[in-house]
Amino acid sequence: MVSRIVLGIPLRIAVASFSHETCTFVPVKTTYDMFKDFIVRGNAIFEHAKTYPNYIRGFMKVAEEEGAELVGILVAGQTSATGYSGWITLDAFDRIVGEILDGLKNSGPFDGVLLALHGAMAVEGVPKPEAEIVRRVRGVVGHIPIMVTLDLHANEDHELAEVADAVFILKTYPHVDSEDIGIIAARCMVKTIRGEFKPVMAFRKPKLVTASIYQATDRPPMKLVYDRCREWEAKGVYCASVAAGYAYADVPDIGASVFVVTNGDRDLAERAAQDISDLIWSLRYEFTKPIPKPREGVAEVLRLVASGVRPVLIAEHSDRIGDGTHVLRELILQGAKNFVIGGIADPNALEWLKNNAKVGDYVKIKIGGWAHPISGEPVEISGKLEFIGSLEYTLVGPMGRGRRVHEDLVALIDMGEGRHVIISKRLRAPMDDQGFKALGIEPRLKDIIVLKDRIHHRAFWDSIVALDYPIDSPGLGPADLTTLEYHNVPDDVYPIGKFWRDKKV
Ligand SMILES: [Zn+2]
User: Fold this and answer.
1) Most buried residue, 284, 324, 363, 406, by CB count within 10 Å?
2) How much distance in Å is there from the Cα of 136 to the middle of ligand 1?
């Protein structure tokens, strides 16, 4: 067969994305119905991708430069249940992957496939979902290059390395380089199709699971890891990737992983992967330093505020559902003033307010603490209902700049003495100040801002606040991973595997 390249036909590359970061400790399943209203199909995926930085916009830039044709298949990932759904059902997985396969069959032939995945998807009955997606895609498209981009929180093992031709992973947390990684992946794809690049990939699994709160990439220990990746890239590695891993999915491929892609140099790839893996393992104790609990943490924040450090941003990082009340309770108990809670998720409380109160009313209501016993008890608050309704605003910070946000129901309660609490339907952690300004709150004037987030918010908020202060409330995403009960992880992963728990190091 005469190659399409020899015939001068533009390269045709299929693009699909199916991504989810699944906290398997949330006791509600993620179903197809939760995905379905947000699935984008065909070339409409490029219209959507144009509007903010993401992997697919990176693919588009390279395609334009190189005169390649991208064919949109499907993007799925957003759900109606952000923040409170766990295991993805096999039905949802099969249906969405099935749609990707149908799209590939109907709009081929292709010279390559670019898959923007996440890596921390957890599916009932599919132990390694991303490897399975690539395997099924391979079954349809055959032996053409399939390359994958992943989030820094991916949990992967050798299976993905075996089925994909190349894997490229974000190097930043907050994640601000998805477009750059998309460009690196698409360049590799185009050169590979043209025969100018021969991707060789080495893989290592350093057997280390780390909590997200320790994974900020602008400071040790993670900065040391990515600096080492960049050193190898300066020595001829095409792309050295590390997934820090996602600790809140109880899956067999949990934890850090290393993927190194070179142009045909197996020895270089293996040496780099081993070196980076050894470095990660050597840093394991850096990833378990204790973080203050709510009582001591709030007390310390109040001391800092009194000494003139303000605003302080409390990152209640362990709350994966958004209904956690631990920090709110302590702020009230310890007499904090002039604070704003960026969101307590409570759809029932919101519904009650909508039906029983109007703006300006004095209300008394119990909020939070409904989704899981670990979230804490509901807390009764009282004050003036300052806002209830829908919000529209555009993000201005590095995380998602330009993206329109619609929230169909939000309430703001003014408890007096500058104490403001926002009630939301779902986990709400404004990535910049627009989610506050839309409600008439200027966060710069607050002493304390509480966000249910780990690291992403820092891309914007570090330039606004005097201090970012994580508090380790009881929650489904704690810093101390030994407080969670895992059933599916290997015995030898540090610190949660049976071997290390028994050793009690
Ligand atoms: Zn991530």
Assistant:
1) 324
2) 24
Task: Give me ligand 1 centre to Cα 211, in Å.
Answer: 12
Residue type, 461: W
**Structural domain for 401, as ranges:** 294-478
User: What is the distance in A from the centroid of ligand 1 to the CA of 303?
Assistant: 33
Q: How far does residue 4's CA lie from ligand 1's centre (Å)?
A: 37
**Cα-to-centroid distance, 100 and ligand 1 (Å):** 23
pLDDT of residue 83: 63
Residue 403 CA to ligand 1 center (angstroms) comes to 18
d(CA 259, CA 165): 11
Cα(171)–Cα(259) distance, rounded to whole angstroms?
12
The answer to whether residues 100 and 185 belong to one domain is yes
Q: Is residue 2 one of the residues assigned to a domain? A: no
Specify the DSSP class assigned to residue 401: T
Write down the pLDDT at residue 501.
87
| Closest-CA residue to 11 (of 200, 144, 182) | 144
Q: Are residues 72 and 131 in the same domain?
A: yes
Residue 119 near residue 462 (C-beta atoms within 8 A): no
pLDDT in tens, 304-353: 999 999 999 999 999 988 999 999 999 999 999 999 999 999 999 999 99
Residue 140 Cα to ligand 1 middle (Å): 29
Q: Which two tokens stand for residue 211?
A: 């909590």
pLDDT of residue 34: 96
